[in-house]
């Protein structure tokens, strides 16, 4: 095992253009502080639970970060009925221009362009004609930019994670409560077709009392991590040199947590992390990366497979995994089980890729393909949007997420998930660091709702509503 260097406090990330950026590294949780302790609310600060968006005709989106994710998502926002891309920003101004040109060419209004420095986004935030800020920059900028968006009076949808540090997650909760603006994780996988049908089945009691679930992000990113043109200035590979963490388990964790009604009657209480040795990236480099490439100066410390075992207050378990360094077909695992049966995604030959088995219908030890059950239990969003979503990213779930956020804002609805859900899902990142530092001992998971997790309330299992007509 390579020696594990101290996590640097001062990082230079987000691209060479961001040189001088101060970003706190994962794993710097202060010694002696309790992971679970909830800071008190300041005067004027109130819960954001069940707080609706203020209704509006059009949602005007400002986008920060126009790379692999932000670029296609910009097109995505622009085609949602009732949504306009009002401004685009990237530290690299040519990307802002390219996005604005593309929208104009597609017959959309030309958005304002911002860029040129790491602080250009602050100019975008000064605009009064922006309602929602979507942030798709490298991880190290999410906290700063999400917080600034709230303070500028905007709602914010932030790519994964909303912040990598526990104290930052708390600060986002507090800032949302103070500003009365929503900040949510842009967790597209919560809107996956299988995930939403699984959620419906769970809530209809098909699997009995839920007892356990597994999810994760298992994606062989090795070629992309070493590609000099994919992740801007290799920001994502660099995280593997500086921290041992479950960097990105939320795509698998969030849908399982939603099915289990986390923050709506149950809560994630403790987390125990394990990590395998870091072998995959060095092995890949040895075989495929020319000597002399800058990566040869790097030492990878992030374990290939990081597993979080989470215990909930109601005695359920969730296993959340992260591995982007090993050869393997893609999987988010997405498995849910209860006293009467189970659902397993990424398994079997069914066209949906999933299978089920539950009593009393099944008692013969034989899996059933998911397709007829998905049709029977289809979430209303997919019944409504399957055709429109067809051309959207990630099998349509990007479109469904964007449609639902815009629809919720236009109709003045409560968001399907909120800053508390987002912070809870993302807390697996810093808490995995803490648990690994503590030789895999369990760590307490904070209750970002400050006691309100007990109450039942709607979430992703929403009632069908009409999109307000577009005038
Ligand atoms: N939800 C999903 O399915 C999904 C998929 C891919 C990526 N992501 C997430 O999206 C985010 C971006 O990933 P990516 O693959 O697009 O990376 P990327 O490197 O392709 O893009 C990042 C962009 O941010 C810009 N940038 C950097 N610092 C900036 C700043 N201070 N101000 C404005 N722009 C800045 C860069 O110039 C670049 O264009 C990450 O959080 C990633 O985890 C999510």
From TrEMBL:
<feature type="region of interest" description="Disordered">
    <location>
        <begin position="447"/>
        <end position="471"/>
    </location>
</feature>
<dbReference type="InterPro" id="IPR049303">
    <property type="entry name" value="Glyco_hydro_109_C"/>
</dbReference>
<dbReference type="InterPro" id="IPR000683">
    <property type="entry name" value="Gfo/Idh/MocA-like_OxRdtase_N"/>
</dbReference>
<keyword id="KW-0732">Signal</keyword>
<keyword id="KW-0326">Glycosidase</keyword>
<feature type="signal peptide">
    <location>
        <begin position="1"/>
        <end position="31"/>
    </location>
</feature>
<dbReference type="InterPro" id="IPR036291">
    <property type="entry name" value="NAD(P)-bd_dom_sf"/>
</dbReference>
<dbReference type="InterPro" id="IPR006311">
    <property type="entry name" value="TAT_signal"/>
</dbReference>
<feature type="domain" description="Gfo/Idh/MocA-like oxidoreductase N-terminal">
    <location>
        <begin position="59"/>
        <end position="182"/>
    </location>
</feature>
<dbReference type="InterPro" id="IPR050463">
    <property type="entry name" value="Gfo/Idh/MocA_oxidrdct_glycsds"/>
</dbReference>
<feature type="domain" description="Glycosyl hydrolase 109 C-terminal">
    <location>
        <begin position="196"/>
        <end position="368"/>
    </location>
</feature>
<comment type="similarity">
    <text>Belongs to the Gfo/Idh/MocA family. Glycosyl hydrolase 109 subfamily.</text>
</comment>
<keyword id="KW-0378">Hydrolase</keyword>
<dbReference type="Pfam" id="PF21252">
    <property type="entry name" value="Glyco_hydro_109_C"/>
</dbReference>
<dbReference type="Pfam" id="PF01408">
    <property type="entry name" value="GFO_IDH_MocA"/>
</dbReference>
<protein>
    <recommendedName>
        <fullName>Glycosyl hydrolase family 109 protein</fullName>
    </recommendedName>
</protein>
<keyword id="KW-0520">NAD</keyword>
């Amino acid at each position: 095992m390579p020696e594990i260097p101290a996590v640097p406090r001062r990082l230079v990330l987000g691209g060479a253009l961001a040189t001088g950026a101060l970003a706190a590294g994962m794993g710097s949780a202060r010694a002696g502080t309790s992971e679970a302790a909830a800071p008190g609310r300041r005067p004027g600060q109130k819960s954001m639970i069940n707080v609706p968006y203020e209704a509006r005709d059009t949602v005007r989106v400002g986008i920060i970060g126009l790379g692999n994710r932000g670029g296609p998502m910009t097109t995505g926002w622009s085609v949602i009925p009732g949504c306009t891309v009002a401004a685009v920003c990237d530290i690299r101004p040519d990307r802002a221009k390219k996005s604005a040109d593309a929208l104009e060419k597609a017959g959309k209004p030309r958005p304002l362009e911002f860029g040129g420095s790491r602080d250009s986004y602050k100019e975008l935030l000064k605009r009064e004609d922006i309602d929602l800020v979507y942030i798709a920059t490298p991880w190290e900028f999410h906290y700063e930019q999400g917080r600034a968006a709230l303070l500028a009076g905007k709602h914010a949808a932030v790519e994964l994670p909303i912040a990598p540090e526990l104290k930052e997650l708390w600060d986002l909760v507090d800032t949302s409560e103070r500003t009365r603006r929503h900040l949510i994780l842009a967790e597209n996988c919560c809107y996956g077709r299988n995930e939403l049908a699984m959620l419906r089945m769970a809530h209809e009691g098909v699997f009995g009392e839920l007892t356990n679930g597994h999810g994760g992000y298992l994606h062989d990113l090795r070629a992309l991590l070493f590609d000099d043109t994919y992740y801007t200035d290799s920001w994502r590979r660099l995280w593997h040199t500086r921290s041992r963490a479950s960097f990105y388990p939320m795509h698998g964790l969030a849908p399982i947590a939603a099915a289990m009604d986390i923050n709506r009657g149950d809560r994630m209480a403790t987390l125990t992390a394990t990590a395998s040795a870091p072998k995959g990236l060095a092995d890949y480099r040895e075989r495929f990366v020319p000597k002399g490439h800058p990566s040869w100066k790097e030492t990878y410390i992030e374990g290939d497979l990081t597993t979080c075992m989470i215990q909930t207050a109601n005695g359920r378990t969730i296993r959340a995994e992260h591995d982007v360094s090993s050869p393997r077909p893609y999987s988010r695992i997405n498995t849910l089980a209860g006293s009467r049966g189970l659902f397993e995604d990424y398994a079997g030959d069914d066209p949906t890729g999933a299978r089920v088995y539950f009593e009393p219908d099944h008692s013969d030890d034989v899996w059933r393909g998911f397709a007829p059950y998905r049709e029977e239990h289809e979430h209303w969003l997919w019944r409504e949007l399957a055709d429109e979503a067809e051309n959207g990213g990630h099998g349509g779930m990007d479109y469904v997420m964007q449609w639902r956020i815009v629809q919720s804002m236009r109709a003045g609805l409560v968001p399907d998930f909120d800053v508390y859900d987002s912070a809870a899902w993302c807390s697996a990142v810093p808490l995995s660091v803490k648990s690994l530092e503590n030789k895999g001992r369990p760590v307490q998971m904070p209750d970002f709702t400050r006691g309100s997790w007990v109450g039942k309330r709607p979430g992703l299992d929403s009632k069908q509503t009409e999109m307000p007509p577009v005038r």
